Amino acid sequence: MNRLTGKVALVTGAGRGIGAAIARAFAAEGAAVVLAELDIATAQVTAREIAEATGAKVLAVQTDVTQSASVQAAVSEAQEALGPVDVLVNNAGINVFADPLTMTDDDWRRCFAVDLDGVWNGCRAVLPGMVERRAGSIINIASTHAFQIIPGCFPYPVAKHGVIGLTRALGIEYAPKNVRVNAIAPGYIETQLTHDWWNAQPDPEAARKATLALPPMKRIGKPEEVAMTAVFLASDEAPFINASCITIDGGRTALHHE
Ligand code: NDP
Q1: Residues 235-243: what's their mean pLDDT?
Q2: Of the four, 83, 204, 245, 250, which is 20 to 30 A from 128 by CA?
Q3: What DSSP element (H or E) covers 10?
Q4: Which run of H or E residues covers position 88?
Q5: In a domain, 234, yes or no
Q6: Domain assignment of residue 239, yes or no
Q7: Residue 14 contacts by C-beta under 8 Å, 6 or more apart in sequence?
Q8: pLDDT in tens, 184-233
């Protein structure tokens, strides 16, 4: 398991969920990993657990992706401790699901601050070094909400559409410098985010069952299933994949209806 040996990877929102699974998979493949996370206590627990399980160098850094200075500081700390960042995963994200006309201005700003500005802040912080070294892989965690709409889930899909636009624009801009920028669009993946959404519904168990029935495979995804694709995109096995998006949803978005 050495597909990422010698690489330094920084994963935002890596304290739990998909980000933690990506950090764990990267470490298992030989990368040194930085968990850039809002909640430093969670990140430290996850970092310790990954380091013990894999023997990799793992660093937890308190980071708020909505603040460009915070992300810049995390990248600097990573570089000082482990070396230049070869791989960035912009994973931190929040659900903001509202009705457009009753949504508050604060909801709109909160959503874009994390789900789109956060991705740009990460890219902005690592790109100068990657361009200078003429090497790098950036992976943005979008969503199937980036091309499909569920009524009442505004403005999350608007921000996720933006993540795909940002991925394509930066992928083209920096392709001549050998920096690849790709996205992953997960469908439903079982994490705290999904449980929080089920628990917010009038009948959480019915909501869970309805979600599991949606994909053709009649199950939802696991964080590890997203992590495997992130390893591939981060590795030297994907040298000509750029400005692309890989969907991980068991075929759900290809389905018209049952
Ligand atoms: P979780 O809520 O389980 O984990 C998200 C992590 O991001 C948390 O640790 C959270 O920290 C952290 N975070 C939130 N805000 C910030 C911030 N401002 N700065 C740094 N870290 C922050 O979510 P998932 O693992 O499910 O989701 C990860 C990504 O995948 C998101 O971008 C999400 O939109 C996307 N996604 C998820 C799907 C799913 O079904 N789960 C489907 C499609 C896309 P804290 O707990 O401290 O807030």
Answers
A1: 97
A2: 245
A3: strand 8-12
A4: strand 87-90
A5: yes
A6: yes
A7: 20, 22, 23, 33, 35, 36, 37, 43, 46, 89, 91
A8: 999 999 999 999 999 999 999 999 999 999 999 999 999 999 999 999 99
User: Per the structure block, which two tokens stand in for 62?
Assistant: 């308190």
First to last CA, the chain: 40
- Tell which atom from ligand 1 comes closest to the C-alpha of 66: 18
pTM over 0.90: yes
The residue to mutate among 22, 94, 95, 192, having the most atoms of ligand 1 within 8 angstroms of its beta carbon, is: 94
Between the CA of 90 and the centroid of ligand 1 the distance, in Å, is 10
223 touches 11 (CB < 8 A)? no
Cα distance between residue 114 and residue 4, in whole Å: 28
Q: How far is the CA of 15 from the centre of ligand 1 (A)?
A: 9
Measuring CA to CA, which residue among 200, 188, 193 is closest to residue 152? 200
Domain span holding position 86:
8-190+222-252
Which tokens go with 194? 């999904």
In a domain, 212, yes or no: no
pLDDT band at residue 135 using 50, 70 and 90 as cut-offs? very high
Q: Report the CATH number at residue 178.
A: 3.40.50.720
In a domain, 25, yes or no: yes
| Total domain count, the chain | 1
Kindly give the pairing relationship between strand 136-141 and strand 179-186: parallel
